């Protein structure tokens, strides 16, 4: 497994990370045994970056990771944990809490659920509009000095927020959606991150499976939140799947899958970018890992750009209410 460094001050991690959200109900019911087996397969293949959030399944995901990591040396993996999203018992979203007391309380619960004595990269899931980013980052910095956190990351924030946060404490990475059909960060956020020495951990590299080459609306499971997304609505999804077929032509000519070429495209945008793939099965994990061997030439990249030009997707990446909450979209 190749490695990439998270920013100027962060750790070396595998060139591809495993996002575990889908193992806790986000895309419908999941198989716990297969989830654990997938995490084990990722670790055995050299994946060292595991991404979770304390609100994924309201703690379910952290407990799942704890089970899968039991017996593994603590220095053999890096835990990236998001916090701050507030949810009700019915799974509804209630907002975000970035207050210093909430930072430390959330961390205490995560450490206990995960069964570890420190988190490698700790980050607020979103910017709390009612709390200065300096206060939130300052509280995490307190936890760094206390030894409970090793590094600080951010998620879905804009260039100005990145600069304000870096004035308080080094930020090693920005977790943000980035794919062939989600390229909004390229204009201002990515240049600012590079100026500040901040890596990007890219989630949604397959746009929640939409551009992975396997999406079938007739097989979506109950509880799959993707049906709420604008890109999956009638009219939009057909147009977006047309982009996938254009991409498939290029992938077939290269002898790789659509998912592999989409992930490889993200990796080709810079050594400071680490794709985080949300594989829920060993089969999908193996396919994703194959992307690390797919080197794209300048001609390949040009062909991909022609097939899926910037801004070609129909629909925003989140519903309007959630888009309005994103500091990265301001």
UniProtKB/TrEMBL annotation:
Pfam families: Aldo_ket_red. Gene3D superfamilies: NADP-dependent oxidoreductase domain. GO terms for cellular component: cytoplasm. InterPro entries: Aldo-Keto_reductase (IPR050791), NAD(P)_OxRdtase_dom_sf (IPR036812), NADP_OxRdtase_dom (IPR023210). GO terms for molecular function: pyridoxine 4-dehydrogenase (NADP+) activity. It is an enzyme of class 1 (oxidoreductase). Keywords: Oxidoreductase. It comes from the Bacteria. Residues 15-307 form the NADP-dependent oxidoreductase domain. Its EC number is 1.1.1.65. This is Pyridoxine 4-dehydrogenase. It comes from Hansschlegelia beijingensis.
């Amino acid at each position: 497994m190749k490695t990439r460094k998270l920013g100027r001050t962060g750790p070396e991690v595998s060139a591809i990370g495993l996002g575990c959200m889908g193992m806790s109900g986000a895309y419908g019911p999941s198989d716990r045994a297969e989830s654990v087996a997938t995490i084990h397969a990722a670790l055995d293949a050299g994946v060292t970056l595991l991404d979770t959030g304390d609100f994924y399944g309201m703690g379910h995901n952290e407990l799942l990771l704890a089970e899968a990591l039991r017996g593994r040396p603590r220095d053999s993996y890096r835990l990236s944990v998001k916090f701050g999203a507030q949810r009700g018992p019915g799974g509804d979203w209630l907002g975000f809490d970035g207050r210093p007391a909430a930072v430390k309380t959330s961390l205490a619960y995560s450490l206990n659920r995960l069964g570890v004595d420190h988190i490698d990269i700790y980050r607020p899931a979103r910017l709390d509009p009612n709390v200065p980013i300096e206060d939130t980052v300052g509280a995490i910095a307190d936890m760094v000095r206390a030894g409970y956190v090793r590094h600080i990351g951010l998620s879905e924030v804009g260039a100005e927020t990145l600069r304000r946060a870096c004035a308080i404490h080094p930020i090693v990475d920005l977790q943000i959606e980035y794919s062939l059909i989600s390229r909004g960060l390229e204009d201002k956020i990515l240049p600012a991150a590079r100026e500040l020495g901040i890596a990007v951990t890219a989630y949604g590299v397959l746009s929640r499976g939409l551009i992975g080459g396997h999406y079938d609306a007739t097989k979506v499971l109950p509880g799959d939140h993707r049906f709420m997304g604008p890109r999956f609505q009638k009219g939009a999804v057909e147009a977006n799947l047309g982009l996938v077929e254009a991409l498939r032509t290029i992938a077939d000519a290269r002898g790789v899958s659509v998912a592999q070429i989409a992930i490889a495209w993200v990796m080709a945008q810079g050594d400071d970018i680490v794709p985080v793939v949300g594989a829920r099965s060993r089969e999908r994990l193996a396919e994703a890992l194959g992307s690390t061997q797919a080197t794209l030439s300048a001609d390949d990249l040009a062909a991909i750009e022609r097939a899926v030009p910037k801004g070609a997707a129909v629909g925003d990446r989140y519903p309007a209410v959630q888009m309005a909450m994103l500091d990265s979209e301001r």
